[in-house]
Design goal:
CATH superfamily of the largest domain in chain A: MetI-like
Strand order of the largest sheet of chain B: 6-7-8-3-9-10
Distance between the termini of chain A: 32 Å
Strand order of the largest sheet of chain A: 1-2
CATH architecture of the largest domain in chain B: 3-Layer(aba) Sandwich
CATH superfamily of the largest domain in chain B: P-loop containing nucleotide triphosphate hydrolases
Oligomer: heterodimer
Strand content of chain B: 35-45%
Radius of gyration of chain B: 24 Å
Helix content of chain B: 10-25%
Number of helices of chain B: 8
Distance between the termini of chain B: 35 Å
Largest sheet of chain A: 2 strands, antiparallel
Low-confidence stretches of chain A: 1-10, 304-342
Order of helices and strands of chain B: EEEHEEEHHHEHEHEEHHEEEEEEEEEE
Number of helices of chain A: 28
Radius of gyration of chain A: 25 Å
Number of strands of chain B: 20
CATH class of the largest domain in chain A: Mainly Alpha
Chain lengths: ~625, ~350
């Protein structure tokens, strides 16, 4: 139906190419060009002292991949970069699996509970924590895990620990932090998937004589397979690219690849080698994506969609035919752990009568939900507590309540400058992201393009590239342009990196928009532009504004890209907090964090209101 | 003088689907014409071509004597009522009704105020101006959609199955309302429906469409009593259809052999011996047990009886798996299931149509 002459608003013979030109300029010329440059510069020759010259050498890759025999056994042990690459993969896998095991029961409970207001509170809590910068959340765990921190103090107080000890930096401290930041992604992905299962199926299963355990094993689990696959894949990919958590919670033994890349760039100024390692990280992500697409139903595009935490999934989750390979992976990755666990639990309570058994299961799951929700919410609550303590250090019990750190925050020139920078960059990046995503969504919706699907993939591609790599690519690109170390550079990078959010939300809105409204307007005499202004835009406003707010909140909280592009010249709040952490834990950091968290929550609630319960 | 003229309208979609096939139709000023046919017959596409949402592959559309084939929808003066009304959800009733005048920009605010008030009065909903569409019932939404369409005083009113989403009682009430308002405003109207009963009730003339073509155009009684084709006879109302071969022809009548029986029927134009033909008999034309023995008489058994309120319908089995539908006014010629009866019908009431 959508031929160029159907008389829909915005349809003119050449308009289709003008409309597409703008987003493609950004997504191809300004996004793919830096990535291409990254590939090229990974073959450049490093000149010690912080510069490089164009050339062609394989030295960078040789250094990264060197497994020359004779230098130790097993070969991988000889090369610190390969060793740390493997560690990166391992930690990411552990994070993904732990998140799945912790997250599934929560997602299930959230999807099946029948108190909408409570669900909404729990979801907003989970979602709000999602957007708070990793820097603040890593800081919260430092406060908890440090020697003399909360965990250790409590441990000593109740006598479990003989003397204070630190739980970070170290492997398990890092895993806890990683699970903490990525669990919400897992929960929301699984939630969407379980929520999409028709509730009548559960009733049908029970009606046919299956108890809760059997229903879960035979109905719920198979139907949420895709959610499990996407959630695990999503967390794995996010964890691979994580910089802040490994940097702030890991010891030198847990330097993951993103940490090593950043060190090469910002510490050693060895751009070619940093580029080569970035290509290595991309390769891992691509291989993983390929495996996933090959063996499961999950597509890269749907994964991009997942990250918007788009509420009730406009995207099909349908558990169509899956390969035997998935079954194998599934049974290893999820089913074994989960079904066995639940199965055993079921066997234990099997002796109790059915009614009481169900009540028991629900009570148990409620306790469990409470525990995980505490895990999700407590760290940020602790930050709030730290911010109002009158002392330099948080003591238990706190010595009172004082606004002094807030006063310090709002009167300190460097904090205020960072704050203003953050707001300005985020606002500009949100505007850019919305115009890119919006125009792409609009063009794809209105016109048929031969390569429409490919263009749509461009729209979600940026978010699939690990941020540390986006940062390195843009840094090299902007160095060439002489723009590195400017707010403009950060705005452009954020604007493109977060364009997928407005793109997905606006596409969704356009999909759901009833075309008849536009026809009615034109029938009443409104021209194409007038129709878009008076009908189309007002009906899409919630999606457009939510998309912009998402981009705003994400840019506001983004650390690594901003840090790489700042070249030490631009300060934002996450950068400022990160830097301050090196000089001890002045509670001003907590005050700054609370202001930031407050801002984030306010914006999230605004998005929720706007879209009339977007999370439902 | 015709107010809307379609000439040779053809619409072929990119996939090759022929939605409308060489349609000619002339509609007079103030006339109410219905396009009726089964889904997929091209009636909606034809209507959308008049509105300008579809550009015909061939043919021309003129409204008020002006060729508008290439004009976009907003440069034509038509008012459309959509199937699901398409009331703008982000505007009040007032804003919806005023929209057409506001976007055209040729009315002062006072004129718009007055016109909106008048139009709401016309559709008998003067008190709802400040409500939003979701605060209205289905019937009210229908009236507001109509008000919005006619408020700018378009040259033509286009209605795309506007009554389809209403329940039966409301639908019948709205049919009368619609006709009253249309006559009061005197606007040329094209109405699209798949509901043959609605088409027969409402229209000055109706055009029966099938597979992209117009099979017959005419006033309801003509189209019902004198169908041109087997399709029209079958689609409008209930018809007993006998398919066979013309056996003999004499001035104005012909005998058609249908397997085990022969029917004498009226024919218009040329019937040739040996050609296949169908005979149409409307169910109310049969006489029951009137003692006739010669001519078109069918012996049969009542197999099924159905009360339709003011009338009763019988399904009568008559020889070789043939089932006849007979309708009588309630209270006359009452029969029960299992009764044997004899049905007769005058040759005058049997009509030959092309097979």
């Amino acid at each position: 139906m959508a031929t160029a002459d159907d008389g829909r608003p915005g349809e003119r013979a050449n308009a289709r190419w003008y409309a597409l030109g703008y987003p493609l300029f950004w997504l191809v010329a300004v996004f793919l060009a830096p990535l291409a440059l990254l590939v090229v510069s990974s073959f450049y020759v490093n000149v010690p002292g912080g510069s490089y010259r164009p050339g062609f050498t394989l030295d960078n890759y040789a250094r990264f991949l060197d497994v020359s025999p004779g230098s130790g056994w097993p070969p991988i042990e000889a090369n610190i970069y390969l060793r740390q690459l493997w560690l990166t993969i391992e930690i990411s896998l552990v994070t993904a699996v732990v998140s799945l095991l912790l997250g599934y029961p929560i997602a299930y409970y959230l999807a099946r509970m029948d108190r909408p207001w409570l669900r909404s509170v729990l979801l907003v809590t989970i979602i709000s924590s999602l957007w708070v910068t990793y820097v603040i959340r890593a800081y919260a765990w430092q406060v908890i895990l440090a020697s003399g921190g909360i965990l250790s103090s409590v441990g000593v107080a109740v006598g479990v620990l003989a003397e204070p000890r630190a739980f970070y930096p170290g492997y398990w401290g890092l895993v806890v932090g990683m699970v903490y930041v990525f669990l919400p992604f897992m929960i929301l992905t699984l939630y969407t998937s379980i929520r999409n299962i028709d509730a009548a199926l559960f009733e049908a299963s029970k009606n046919l004589g299956a108890g809760p355990t059997t229903t879960f094993r035979r109905v719920t689990l198979p139907l949420s397979k895709n959610g499990i696959a996407s959630g695990t894949a999503l967390v794995f990919i996010l964890a691979l690219g994580a910089y802040v958590m490994p940097r702030l919670l890991g010891s030198s033994a847990e330097r993951t690849l993103p940490v090593l890349i950043e060190a090469q760039i910002m510490g050693e100024s060895n751009y070619p080698f940093g580029a080569a390692m970035s290509i290595g990280l991309i390769a891992v992500v691509l291989v993983f994506l390929w495996l996933m697409v090959r063996f499961t139903d999950v597509t890269a595009a749907s994964l991009g969609g997942e990250q918007t935490v788009e509420p009730d999934g406009g995207r099909p989750v349908g558990g169509g035919a899956t390969d035997g390979a998935w079954d194998r992976i599934g049974s290893v990755a999820a089913a074994v752990g989960l079904t066995r666990l639940v199965g055993r639990l079921g066997a234990v309570v099997g002796r109790i009568d059915a009614r009481r058994r169900e009540r028991l299961l629900w009570t148990a799951s409620r306790l469990y939900v409470a525990a995980v929700m505490t895990f999700v919410a407590a760290p940020l609550a602790i930050i709030v507590a730290v911010s109002v303590t009158p002392e330099q250090f948080l003591t238990f019990p706190p010595g009172g309540i004082s606004p002094r750190w807030y006063v310090e925050f709002f009167t300190d020139a460097s904090w205020m400058l960072a704050f203003v920078n953050s707001l300005g960059i985020a606002a500009a990046a949100a505007a850019l992201a919305t115009t890119i995503g919006g125009s792409l969504a609009f063009a794809l919706d209105r016109y048929g393009y031969r390569w429409g699907r490919l263009f749509g993939t461009f729209g979600v591609l940026p978010i699939l590239v690990p941020p540390v790599i986006v940062g390195v690519a843009f840094l090299i690109f902007f160095l060439e342009l002489g723009l590195a170390g400017s707010r403009t550079a950060i705005v452009v990078a954020h604007g493109i990196f977060y364009a997928p959010f407005p793109f997905i939300l606006i596409s969704q809105g356009l999909d759901e928009l009833d075309r008849t409204y536009e026809e009615a307007a034109m029938n009443l005499g409104a021209s194409g532009t007038l129709t878009i202004r008076t009908i189309t835009y007002p009906l899409l406003r919630a999606n457009v504004v939510s998309g912009a707010l998402f981009a705003f909140i994400l840019s506001l909280n983004e650390y690594i890209i901003a840090w790489l592009l700042s070249l030490f010249l631009v300060d934002t709040i996450p950068i400022q907090i990160f830097n301050s952490l090196r000089y001890g834990y002045r509670p001003t950091i907590a005050a700054a964090s609370v202001v930031f968290i407050g801002l984030t929550v306010v914006v999230m609630v605004a998005i929720d209101r706007l879209s009339g319960g977007i999370w439902e | 003088m015709s107010d809307i003229a379609l000439s040779g309208i053809t619409k072929r979609y990119p996939g090759g689907v022929l939605a409308v096939d060489d349609v000619d139709l002339e509609i007079d000023r103030g006339e109410f014409v219905t396009l009726v046919g089964p889904s997929g017959c091209g009636k909606t596409t034809t209507l959308r071509t008049i509105a300008g949402f579809e550009r015909p592959t061939a043919g021309t559309v003129s409204i008020g004597g002006v060729d508008v084939t290439d004009a976009p929808p907003y440069e034509r003066s038509t008012g459309m009522v959509f199937q699901d009304f398409a009331l703008f959800p982000h505007m009040t009733v007032y804003e919806n009704v005023a929209y057409g005048m506001e976007v055209r920009g040729d009315h002062t605010d006072e004129e718009i105020d007055t016109r909106v008030a008048e139009t709401l009065e016309l559709v008998e909903l003067p008190g709802v101006a400040d409500r939003t569409p979701d605060q209205l019932s289905g019937g009210q939404q229908q009236r507001i959609a109509l008000a919005r369409a006619i408020a700018p005083r378009p040259e033509a009113l286009l209605l795309d199955e506007p009554l389809a989403s209403l329940d039966k009682k409301l639908r019948e009430q709205m049919q009368l309302e619609l006709r009253r308002i249309q006559e009061e405003v005197g606007i040329t109207t094209v109405f699209v429906t798949h509901n043959q009963e609605e088409a027969l009730t409402l229209s000055d003339r109706l055009a029966v469409m099938n597979e992209g073509r117009i099979e017959q155009v005419g006033p309801p009684e003509t189209v019902y009593d004198e169908p041109d084709t087997r399709f029209v006879a079958d689609f409008l109302g209930t018809a007993n259809l006998f398919d066979g071969t013309v056996a003999a022809v004499e001035d104005g009548y012909a005998t058609v052999g249908c397997g085990d029986l022969e029917i004498r029927a009226r024919h218009r134009g040329e019937a040739t011996v040996g050609e296949s033909a169908s005979v149409v008999v409307r169910p109310e034309r049969f006489a029951i047990d009137d003692g006739r023995t010669g001519g078109n008489v069918f012996e049969g058994t009542v197999r099924f009886k159905r009360h339709l309120g003011s009338s009763v319908e019988y399904r009568v089995e008559s020889g070789n798996d043939r089932e006849l539908v007979v309708v009588r006014r309630s209270g006359t010629d009452a029969r029960s299931v299992g009764d044997r009866l004899s049905l007769s019908v005058d040759a005058e009431d049997c009509l030959i149509v092309g097979a």
